[in-house]
């Protein structure tokens, strides 16, 4: 996007008819893989969210220029198009699936924002992951027989291609993140999520889904990850999960989850025509690469560059959402940026809610819009919101928003 403000539009880089703004954001419940949503494939998770977004905003299905969706471990075949048709959108609306692994959902929103900035119209964008129904994957060996593997290769072996947990240990060691800090942060994430769930903070952003046949009740309405009985004593009992005598445990790591999240993103001009009351204006985005061995620091690299380009200090952020794949990398990134960890993820994060790979970046944006609207000062323009996610292979994506009244 252009680097200078447009006269008459303070703080915005584009004129109103090209200034991207998110006017709605919804998600499914995020549930443990092989759990409450295990019977739903990716397009079946996503389609109800797309339908609900159109109903909430009044955007006509034929107005949608494209459906841009992130996905990391699905079956291929362009889940964005499949979900769009499943949701009842006309055949004239195309679909595009984005794969930047854990960053896919946020990067889909980033791409859609850039399309709006180029004059492209109105988009549905987000991410989805059904880890429960992800296909088994295999290479063909020399004889043509399948050689199954658990995850894709993210970097050449000459660079190092550690498993996620090992990379989290690398970050903890490199940046001096202790076991005690990791456990404290993870426990706080659960306690915040439990409190938010109890207070109904997630209700308005969550689209219920049908439960498996014969299940009572007949719908899945809530995240199943937050643990109200988790305590300091229980956290201390978890052994190192990935490296002998390490500090990263199952307690301070996220769990695999199924879920979907998406937004409606359009121009400021069109948002006003639709009668939207408020939204998240996209001020800027960035994606950065880092050493694959320290992949968890990628979000900080992207956010540092983004904030510098926008001439904004991290201390100016009113809302911060970071994908908590591991407490070690979350704390390392927040430390690097100078953001007090108490200010991040006000209602808990992936340590409590789970990590639905391709959806997680879009969940961050959904949470930011919900928090901006729930804030006591929600009627005032100007709240700055930052979403960040680190990505396999040594990358990170960050997006900066301003909550505005329309």
What layout of secondary structure does this protein have?
Layout: E1 20-27, E2 31-32, H1 42-57, E3 64-70, H2 79-86, E4 95-98, H3 104-117, E5 122-129, E6 137-140, E7 146-149, H4 164-174, H5 179-198, E8 209-210, E9 219-220, H6 232-237, E10 257-267, H7 268-273, E11 278-289, H8 298-309, E12 319-322, H9 327-337, H10 350-353, H11 357-374, E13 383-391, E14 395-405
Helix pairs in contact: 1-2, 3-11, 4-9, 8-9
Radius of gyration: 20 Å
State the separation between the terminal residues, measured CA to CA.
22 Å
Series of secondary-structure elements, N-terminal to C-terminal: EEHEHEHEEEHHEEHEHEHEHHHEE
Assign the structural class, choosing from mainly alpha, mainly beta, alpha/beta, alpha+beta, or little secondary structure.
alpha+beta
Give average pLDDT, whole number: 94
Inertia-based shape = globular
- DSSP E strands, number: 14
* Oligomeric description of these chains: single chain
Low-pLDDT runs of 5+ residues are 1-10
């Amino acid at each position: 996007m252009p680097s200078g403000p447009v006269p008459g539009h303070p703080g915005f880089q584009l004129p109103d008819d090209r200034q991207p703004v998110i006017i709605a954001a919804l998600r499914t419940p995020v549930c443990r893989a092989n759990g409450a949503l295990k019977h739903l494939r990716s397009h079946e998770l996503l389609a109800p969210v797309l339908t609900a977004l159109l109903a909430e905003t009044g955007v006509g299905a034929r107005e949608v220029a494209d459906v841009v969706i992130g996905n990391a471990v699905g079956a291929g075949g362009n889940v964005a198009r499949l979900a769009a048709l499943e949701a009842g959108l006309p055949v004239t609306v195309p679909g595009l699936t984005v794969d930047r692994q854990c960053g896919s959902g946020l990067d889909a929103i980033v791409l859609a924002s850039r399309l709006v900035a180029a004059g492209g119209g109105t988009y549905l964008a987000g991410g989805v992951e059904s880890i429960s129904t992800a296909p088994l994957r295999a290479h063909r060996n020399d004889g043509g027989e399948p050689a199954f593997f658990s995850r894709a290769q993210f970097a050449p072996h000459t660079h190092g291609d550690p498993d996620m947990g090992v990379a989290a240990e690398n970050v903890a060691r490199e940046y001096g993140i202790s076991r005690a800090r990791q456990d404290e942060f993870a426990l706080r994430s659960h306690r915040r999520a439990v409190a938010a769930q109890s207070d109904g903070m997630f209700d308005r952003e969550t689209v219920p889904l049908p439960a498996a046949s014969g299940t009572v009740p007949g719908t899945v309405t809530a995240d199943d990850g937050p643990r109200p009985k988790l305590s300091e004593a229980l956290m201390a009992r978890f052994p190192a999960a990935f490296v002998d005598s390490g500090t990263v445990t199952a307690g301070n790591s996220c769990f695999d989850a199924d879920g979907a999240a998406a937004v409606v993103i359009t121009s400021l001009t069109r948002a006003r025509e639709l009668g939207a009351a408020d939204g998240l204006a996209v001020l800027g985005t960035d994606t950065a690469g880092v050493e694959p061995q320290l992949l968890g620091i990628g979000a900080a690299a992207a956010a540092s560059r983004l904030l510098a380009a926008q001439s904004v200090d991290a201390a100016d952020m009113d809302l911060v959402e970071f994908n908590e794949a591991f407490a070690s990398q979350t704390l390392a990134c927040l430390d690097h940026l100078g953001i007090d960890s108490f200010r991040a993820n006000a209602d808990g994060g992936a340590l409590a809610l789970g990590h639905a790979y391709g959806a997680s970046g879009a969940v961050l944006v959904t949470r930011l819009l919900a928090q901006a609207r729930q804030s006591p000062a929600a009627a005032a323009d100007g709240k700055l919101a930052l979403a960040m996610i680190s990505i396999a292979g040594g990358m990170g994506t960050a997006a900066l928003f301003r909550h505005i009244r329309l």
